[in-house]
Design goal:
single chain, 381 residues
Protein backbone atom coordinates (compact mmCIF):
# COMPACT_ATOMS: atom_id res chain seq x y z
CA UNK A 1 0.00 0.00 0.00
CA UNK A 2 2.85 2.38 0.83
CA UNK A 3 4.38 1.78 -2.60
CA UNK A 4 1.02 2.53 -4.24
CA UNK A 5 0.65 5.76 -2.25
CA UNK A 6 4.20 6.82 -3.10
CA UNK A 7 3.58 6.08 -6.78
CA UNK A 8 0.38 8.13 -6.80
CA UNK A 9 2.14 11.00 -5.04
CA UNK A 10 5.02 10.89 -7.52
CA UNK A 11 2.66 10.94 -10.51
CA UNK A 12 0.74 13.80 -8.92
CA UNK A 13 3.75 16.05 -8.35
CA UNK A 14 5.19 15.30 -11.80
CA UNK A 15 1.88 16.36 -13.34
CA UNK A 16 2.01 19.63 -11.40
CA UNK A 17 5.52 20.37 -12.63
CA UNK A 18 4.54 19.68 -16.25
CA UNK A 19 1.54 21.96 -15.87
CA UNK A 20 3.73 24.70 -14.43
CA UNK A 21 6.22 24.46 -17.28
CA UNK A 22 3.42 24.65 -19.86
CA UNK A 23 1.88 27.67 -18.14
CA UNK A 24 5.25 29.42 -17.96
CA UNK A 25 4.94 30.12 -21.70
CA UNK A 26 1.60 31.85 -21.14
CA UNK A 27 2.78 34.05 -18.25
CA UNK A 28 4.16 36.78 -20.48
CA UNK A 29 3.69 39.79 -18.21
CA UNK A 30 2.91 40.77 -14.62
CA UNK A 31 -0.88 40.45 -14.93
CA UNK A 32 -0.59 36.98 -16.48
CA UNK A 33 1.67 35.77 -13.69
CA UNK A 34 0.13 37.56 -10.70
CA UNK A 35 -3.60 37.65 -11.56
CA UNK A 36 -4.03 35.08 -14.35
CA UNK A 37 -4.68 37.80 -16.92
CA UNK A 38 -7.76 39.11 -15.05
CA UNK A 39 -9.99 37.06 -17.36
CA UNK A 40 -11.15 34.00 -15.39
CA UNK A 41 -14.82 32.95 -15.50
CA UNK A 42 -17.10 32.23 -12.54
CA UNK A 43 -16.66 28.43 -12.51
CA UNK A 44 -12.84 28.33 -12.21
CA UNK A 45 -12.87 31.31 -9.82
CA UNK A 46 -15.41 29.61 -7.53
CA UNK A 47 -13.49 26.33 -7.46
CA UNK A 48 -10.26 28.22 -6.89
CA UNK A 49 -11.74 30.07 -3.88
CA UNK A 50 -12.94 26.78 -2.40
CA UNK A 51 -9.65 25.01 -3.04
CA UNK A 52 -7.78 27.91 -1.46
CA UNK A 53 -9.83 28.01 1.76
CA UNK A 54 -10.00 24.21 2.14
CA UNK A 55 -6.50 23.70 3.44
CA UNK A 56 -4.99 21.89 6.41
CA UNK A 57 -6.97 23.88 8.97
CA UNK A 58 -10.32 23.22 7.31
CA UNK A 59 -9.74 19.47 6.87
CA UNK A 60 -7.48 17.93 9.51
CA UNK A 61 -7.69 20.92 11.84
CA UNK A 62 -11.49 21.12 11.89
CA UNK A 63 -11.86 17.35 12.35
CA UNK A 64 -9.48 17.52 15.34
CA UNK A 65 -11.32 20.51 16.80
CA UNK A 66 -14.63 18.64 16.40
CA UNK A 67 -13.21 15.77 18.43
CA UNK A 68 -12.14 18.16 21.19
CA UNK A 69 -15.02 20.67 21.22
CA UNK A 70 -17.93 18.90 19.55
CA UNK A 71 -20.29 20.56 17.08
CA UNK A 72 -19.21 24.18 17.91
CA UNK A 73 -16.13 23.48 15.74
CA UNK A 74 -18.44 24.24 12.83
CA UNK A 75 -18.23 27.96 13.64
CA UNK A 76 -14.72 28.28 12.16
CA UNK A 77 -16.01 27.51 8.68
CA UNK A 78 -19.42 29.08 9.17
CA UNK A 79 -17.75 32.37 10.02
CA UNK A 80 -15.61 31.89 6.92
CA UNK A 81 -18.77 31.34 4.87
CA UNK A 82 -20.35 34.44 6.42
CA UNK A 83 -17.22 36.40 5.52
CA UNK A 84 -17.45 35.28 1.90
CA UNK A 85 -21.16 36.08 1.67
CA UNK A 86 -20.63 39.52 3.22
CA UNK A 87 -17.80 40.09 0.78
CA UNK A 88 -20.13 39.26 -2.12
CA UNK A 89 -22.82 41.60 -0.80
CA UNK A 90 -20.68 44.58 0.13
CA UNK A 91 -17.26 44.74 -1.52
CA UNK A 92 -16.66 42.18 -4.30
CA UNK A 93 -17.86 44.42 -7.11
CA UNK A 94 -16.25 47.53 -5.66
CA UNK A 95 -12.82 45.92 -5.26
CA UNK A 96 -12.88 44.38 -8.75
CA UNK A 97 -13.90 47.70 -10.30
CA UNK A 98 -10.72 49.28 -8.91
CA UNK A 99 -8.86 47.09 -11.43
CA UNK A 100 -5.97 46.59 -8.99
CA UNK A 101 -3.61 43.63 -9.28
CA UNK A 102 -3.17 43.03 -5.54
CA UNK A 103 -5.10 43.77 -2.36
CA UNK A 104 -2.45 46.29 -1.17
CA UNK A 105 -2.71 47.87 -4.61
CA UNK A 106 -6.43 48.37 -4.01
CA UNK A 107 -5.62 49.88 -0.61
CA UNK A 108 -3.16 52.21 -2.29
CA UNK A 109 -5.83 53.46 -4.67
CA UNK A 110 -8.24 54.10 -1.81
CA UNK A 111 -5.95 55.28 0.98
CA UNK A 112 -2.55 56.17 -0.47
CA UNK A 113 0.95 54.72 -0.67
CA UNK A 114 1.61 54.40 3.12
CA UNK A 115 -1.48 52.19 3.50
CA UNK A 116 -0.37 50.10 0.53
CA UNK A 117 3.12 49.48 1.94
CA UNK A 118 1.86 48.78 5.46
CA UNK A 119 -0.71 46.28 4.22
CA UNK A 120 1.84 44.59 1.96
CA UNK A 121 4.30 44.15 4.82
CA UNK A 122 1.65 42.66 7.14
CA UNK A 123 0.55 40.18 4.47
CA UNK A 124 4.04 38.99 3.55
CA UNK A 125 5.07 38.51 7.20
CA UNK A 126 1.89 36.84 8.42
CA UNK A 127 1.49 34.66 5.34
CA UNK A 128 4.88 33.02 5.87
CA UNK A 129 3.28 31.68 9.07
CA UNK A 130 0.25 30.49 7.11
CA UNK A 131 2.46 28.68 4.57
CA UNK A 132 4.47 27.08 7.38
CA UNK A 133 1.26 25.91 9.06
CA UNK A 134 0.20 24.15 5.88
CA UNK A 135 3.65 22.61 5.44
CA UNK A 136 3.55 21.26 9.01
CA UNK A 137 0.32 19.49 8.11
CA UNK A 138 1.85 18.08 4.93
CA UNK A 139 4.88 16.77 6.83
CA UNK A 140 2.67 15.04 9.39
CA UNK A 141 0.47 13.52 6.71
CA UNK A 142 3.42 12.10 4.78
CA UNK A 143 5.01 10.68 7.93
CA UNK A 144 1.76 8.97 8.79
CA UNK A 145 0.90 7.56 5.39
CA UNK A 146 4.42 6.26 4.69
CA UNK A 147 4.86 4.87 8.20
CA UNK A 148 8.19 6.56 8.96
CA UNK A 149 9.96 9.89 9.17
CA UNK A 150 9.60 11.07 5.57
CA UNK A 151 11.62 14.27 5.72
CA UNK A 152 13.23 13.63 2.33
CA UNK A 153 9.87 12.98 0.64
CA UNK A 154 8.39 16.04 2.38
CA UNK A 155 11.20 18.31 1.20
CA UNK A 156 10.83 17.03 -2.37
CA UNK A 157 7.06 17.65 -2.39
CA UNK A 158 7.52 21.10 -0.82
CA UNK A 159 10.10 22.01 -3.46
CA UNK A 160 7.76 20.77 -6.20
CA UNK A 161 5.11 23.22 -4.97
CA UNK A 162 7.65 26.03 -5.17
CA UNK A 163 8.83 24.93 -8.62
CA UNK A 164 5.47 24.74 -10.38
CA UNK A 165 4.33 27.96 -8.73
CA UNK A 166 7.57 29.61 -9.81
CA UNK A 167 7.02 28.54 -13.43
CA UNK A 168 3.33 29.13 -14.00
CA UNK A 169 2.34 31.64 -11.33
CA UNK A 170 -1.34 32.34 -10.84
CA UNK A 171 -2.24 30.66 -14.13
CA UNK A 172 -0.97 27.32 -12.80
CA UNK A 173 -2.53 27.92 -9.39
CA UNK A 174 -6.00 28.45 -10.86
CA UNK A 175 -5.79 25.39 -13.10
CA UNK A 176 -4.49 23.11 -10.35
CA UNK A 177 -7.04 24.52 -7.88
CA UNK A 178 -9.90 23.25 -10.02
CA UNK A 179 -8.54 19.71 -10.04
CA UNK A 180 -7.53 19.86 -6.39
CA UNK A 181 -10.98 20.95 -5.22
CA UNK A 182 -12.51 17.97 -7.03
CA UNK A 183 -10.05 15.66 -5.23
CA UNK A 184 -10.82 17.32 -1.87
CA UNK A 185 -14.58 16.96 -2.37
CA UNK A 186 -14.34 13.31 -3.45
CA UNK A 187 -12.08 12.36 -0.53
CA UNK A 188 -14.12 14.10 2.17
CA UNK A 189 -17.53 13.00 0.85
CA UNK A 190 -16.35 9.39 0.37
CA UNK A 191 -15.14 9.36 3.99
CA UNK A 192 -18.41 10.86 5.23
CA UNK A 193 -20.50 8.29 3.36
CA UNK A 194 -18.29 5.43 4.52
CA UNK A 195 -18.65 6.46 8.17
CA UNK A 196 -22.32 7.39 8.19
CA UNK A 197 -23.67 4.46 6.17
CA UNK A 198 -21.19 1.60 6.47
CA UNK A 199 -19.21 1.95 9.72
CA UNK A 200 -20.44 0.26 12.89
CA UNK A 201 -21.58 2.05 16.01
CA UNK A 202 -23.23 5.03 14.37
CA UNK A 203 -26.42 6.57 15.67
CA UNK A 204 -28.04 9.99 15.88
CA UNK A 205 -28.11 9.74 19.66
CA UNK A 206 -24.30 9.65 19.65
CA UNK A 207 -24.07 13.24 18.46
CA UNK A 208 -24.53 16.48 20.38
CA UNK A 209 -25.46 19.31 18.04
CA UNK A 210 -25.31 22.19 20.52
CA UNK A 211 -23.67 25.27 18.97
CA UNK A 212 -22.14 26.37 22.28
CA UNK A 213 -20.71 24.38 25.18
CA UNK A 214 -18.15 24.66 27.98
CA UNK A 215 -15.28 24.33 25.52
CA UNK A 216 -16.73 26.98 23.23
CA UNK A 217 -18.30 29.86 25.23
CA UNK A 218 -20.23 32.78 23.64
CA UNK A 219 -17.15 35.05 23.68
CA UNK A 220 -15.56 32.77 21.09
CA UNK A 221 -18.31 33.76 18.67
CA UNK A 222 -17.23 37.38 18.89
CA UNK A 223 -13.52 36.59 18.52
CA UNK A 224 -13.85 34.20 15.60
CA UNK A 225 -16.38 36.34 13.78
CA UNK A 226 -13.75 39.05 13.41
CA UNK A 227 -10.55 36.99 13.26
CA UNK A 228 -11.74 34.16 10.99
CA UNK A 229 -14.61 35.92 9.26
CA UNK A 230 -12.38 38.91 8.67
CA UNK A 231 -9.79 36.85 6.81
CA UNK A 232 -12.47 35.36 4.53
CA UNK A 233 -14.07 38.79 4.07
CA UNK A 234 -10.85 40.55 3.09
CA UNK A 235 -8.01 38.04 2.98
CA UNK A 236 -5.32 38.53 0.31
CA UNK A 237 -5.66 35.01 -1.09
CA UNK A 238 -9.44 35.10 -1.29
CA UNK A 239 -9.42 38.64 -2.65
CA UNK A 240 -6.84 37.57 -5.23
CA UNK A 241 -9.60 35.38 -6.68
CA UNK A 242 -11.67 38.54 -6.95
CA UNK A 243 -8.86 40.18 -8.90
CA UNK A 244 -8.44 37.30 -11.37
CA UNK A 245 -12.15 37.44 -12.26
CA UNK A 246 -13.05 38.74 -15.70
CA UNK A 247 -15.65 41.16 -14.29
CA UNK A 248 -17.13 42.58 -11.09
CA UNK A 249 -20.22 40.44 -11.61
CA UNK A 250 -18.11 37.30 -11.83
CA UNK A 251 -16.24 38.22 -8.65
CA UNK A 252 -19.46 38.75 -6.70
CA UNK A 253 -21.13 35.54 -7.92
CA UNK A 254 -18.04 33.43 -7.19
CA UNK A 255 -17.73 34.69 -3.60
CA UNK A 256 -21.44 34.14 -2.94
CA UNK A 257 -21.54 30.59 -4.31
CA UNK A 258 -18.32 29.70 -2.46
CA UNK A 259 -19.81 30.90 0.82
CA UNK A 260 -22.95 28.82 0.35
CA UNK A 261 -20.95 25.68 -0.54
CA UNK A 262 -18.73 26.23 2.49
CA UNK A 263 -21.73 26.10 4.85
CA UNK A 264 -22.53 22.56 3.69
CA UNK A 265 -18.90 21.44 3.67
CA UNK A 266 -18.53 22.64 7.26
CA UNK A 267 -21.28 20.30 8.44
CA UNK A 268 -19.76 17.33 6.59
CA UNK A 269 -16.21 17.72 7.95
CA UNK A 270 -17.49 18.39 11.49
CA UNK A 271 -19.72 15.31 11.32
CA UNK A 272 -16.65 13.26 10.45
CA UNK A 273 -14.91 14.62 13.55
CA UNK A 274 -18.01 13.92 15.63
CA UNK A 275 -18.05 10.31 14.47
CA UNK A 276 -14.54 9.93 15.86
CA UNK A 277 -15.61 11.71 19.08
CA UNK A 278 -18.54 9.30 19.49
CA UNK A 279 -16.67 6.11 18.68
CA UNK A 280 -13.03 6.60 19.70
CA UNK A 281 -11.70 7.30 23.19
CA UNK A 282 -9.09 9.93 23.94
CA UNK A 283 -6.61 7.20 24.82
CA UNK A 284 -7.26 5.35 21.55
CA UNK A 285 -6.75 8.49 19.49
CA UNK A 286 -3.66 9.57 21.38
CA UNK A 287 -1.79 12.31 19.52
CA UNK A 288 -3.04 11.24 16.09
CA UNK A 289 -5.13 13.53 13.92
CA UNK A 290 -8.72 12.34 13.76
CA UNK A 291 -8.61 11.88 9.98
CA UNK A 292 -5.38 9.92 10.20
CA UNK A 293 -6.93 7.61 12.79
CA UNK A 294 -9.78 6.94 10.37
CA UNK A 295 -7.35 6.24 7.56
CA UNK A 296 -5.41 3.75 9.68
CA UNK A 297 -8.23 1.99 11.49
CA UNK A 298 -11.72 2.57 10.11
CA UNK A 299 -12.32 3.45 6.47
CA UNK A 300 -11.66 0.94 3.65
CA UNK A 301 -8.36 1.24 1.79
CA UNK A 302 -9.87 2.65 -1.45
CA UNK A 303 -11.55 5.40 0.60
CA UNK A 304 -8.31 5.93 2.49
CA UNK A 305 -6.47 6.54 -0.79
CA UNK A 306 -9.14 9.02 -1.91
CA UNK A 307 -8.94 10.86 1.41
CA UNK A 308 -5.14 10.97 1.26
CA UNK A 309 -5.24 12.48 -2.23
CA UNK A 310 -7.88 14.94 -1.05
CA UNK A 311 -5.82 16.02 1.97
CA UNK A 312 -2.67 16.47 -0.11
CA UNK A 313 -4.69 18.52 -2.61
CA UNK A 314 -6.16 20.65 0.18
CA UNK A 315 -2.72 21.48 1.53
CA UNK A 316 -1.10 22.09 -1.86
CA UNK A 317 -3.92 24.31 -3.09
CA UNK A 318 -3.51 26.60 -0.08
CA UNK A 319 0.29 26.71 -0.13
CA UNK A 320 0.70 27.63 -3.80
CA UNK A 321 -1.87 30.44 -3.56
CA UNK A 322 -0.21 31.89 -0.45
CA UNK A 323 3.25 31.77 -2.02
CA UNK A 324 2.34 33.39 -5.33
CA UNK A 325 0.26 36.11 -3.67
CA UNK A 326 2.83 36.97 -1.01
CA UNK A 327 5.57 37.09 -3.67
CA UNK A 328 3.55 39.23 -6.08
CA UNK A 329 2.65 41.62 -3.26
CA UNK A 330 6.27 41.92 -2.10
CA UNK A 331 7.55 42.71 -5.59
CA UNK A 332 4.69 44.90 -6.75
CA UNK A 333 3.77 46.82 -3.62
CA UNK A 334 7.01 46.96 -1.63
CA UNK A 335 9.69 46.91 -4.32
CA UNK A 336 7.37 48.76 -6.75
CA UNK A 337 8.28 46.45 -9.65
CA UNK A 338 6.30 44.40 -12.17
CA UNK A 339 9.10 42.05 -13.16
CA UNK A 340 7.94 38.45 -13.54
CA UNK A 341 11.42 36.97 -13.01
CA UNK A 342 11.77 38.96 -9.80
CA UNK A 343 8.47 37.49 -8.57
CA UNK A 344 9.72 34.01 -9.47
CA UNK A 345 12.87 34.63 -7.42
CA UNK A 346 10.73 35.82 -4.51
CA UNK A 347 8.56 32.68 -4.78
CA UNK A 348 11.72 30.62 -4.25
CA UNK A 349 12.89 32.73 -1.31
CA UNK A 350 9.53 32.75 0.50
CA UNK A 351 9.08 29.05 -0.17
CA UNK A 352 12.49 28.21 1.28
CA UNK A 353 12.00 30.46 4.33
CA UNK A 354 8.65 28.80 5.05
CA UNK A 355 10.18 25.35 4.58
CA UNK A 356 13.01 26.15 6.99
CA UNK A 357 10.54 27.57 9.51
CA UNK A 358 8.50 24.37 9.23
CA UNK A 359 11.45 22.07 9.83
CA UNK A 360 12.54 24.09 12.88
CA UNK A 361 9.14 24.84 14.42
CA UNK A 362 6.44 22.21 14.17
CA UNK A 363 3.18 22.69 16.05
CA UNK A 364 -0.59 22.49 16.04
CA UNK A 365 -2.17 23.52 12.72
CA UNK A 366 -5.05 25.52 14.13
CA UNK A 367 -2.80 27.31 16.64
CA UNK A 368 -0.27 28.30 13.98
CA UNK A 369 -2.89 29.58 11.57
CA UNK A 370 -4.85 31.37 14.28
CA UNK A 371 -1.64 33.14 15.31
CA UNK A 372 -1.00 34.24 11.72
CA UNK A 373 -4.60 35.40 11.31
CA UNK A 374 -4.36 37.29 14.60
CA UNK A 375 -1.54 39.32 13.07
CA UNK A 376 -3.32 39.84 9.78
CA UNK A 377 -6.87 40.66 10.87
CA UNK A 378 -6.33 43.51 13.35
CA UNK A 379 -3.63 44.93 11.10
CA UNK A 380 -5.76 44.99 7.98
CA UNK A 381 -9.52 44.68 8.43
Amino acid sequence: MQSLILGILLAYVLFLIVLGVLDAKKAKDFDDFAVAGKKQKAFPVTLSILATVLGASTTMGIADTSFKLGFPAVWWLWFGAIGLILQAVFISKKVRELNASTLPGAAGILAGKPAEIALAAIIVISWIGVIAGQLVALYGLLNFILGKDSKAVFIVVALVIVIYTCFGGQLSVVRTDMLQFIFIAIGVVATFVSLMFFANGIGASSFDFHLLNEGYPPMNLFNQFFIIGGVYFLGPDIMSRNLISKSAKTAKRSALVSGIVLIGYAVIIVMIGLWVRANVSVDELGEQHALMYLMANVIPKPVMVLLFIGLVSAILSSIDTCIVNASSIFVNNILRKENVNLIRATVIVIGLISLAFTLLNQGDIITMLSSAYSVYTPGVI
